[in-house]
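haha ok so turns out i had the wrong file open the whole time. this is the CORRECT one, sorry everyone. sequence first:
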Amino acid sequence: MKKYIGTKQIEAEPMTMGEAYEKNLLQAGRVPNESEKDKAGYHTKYEDGYESWSPAEPFEKAYKVADTPLDRMIIEYDELKQKIDKLDVFLDSEKFKTLDEKVKGLLSSQYHIMIAYSIVLSERMRLM
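then structure:
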């Protein structure tokens, strides 16, 4: 199977599994036991109106708050920082040394441009 990355915008609010059960947001036939009723999670609502409940851990791994321009800028900055860190490791790797000189130059340029972009984002966040 191929790997896919998806992006979608949803609405969500914190909700326990017990509350989700009371509002019929769990999978059909799913009844939480007593120890699960306080399990943290989120009531989610999708663009097409579909509503469900998601446990906190996978939800928080997949979604970030994006209510304001600053929220979205923070997401962009964090994703850029992760890419910079990965590229930095690659630039120090043995694999990088085996690449064509032009490709190495382009990757080095990309790294420096990404660093400059992160500085711009950081300054914009500071000013907001």
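Helices lie at 17-22, 56-62, 69-91, 94-97, 101-127.
again sry for the mixup
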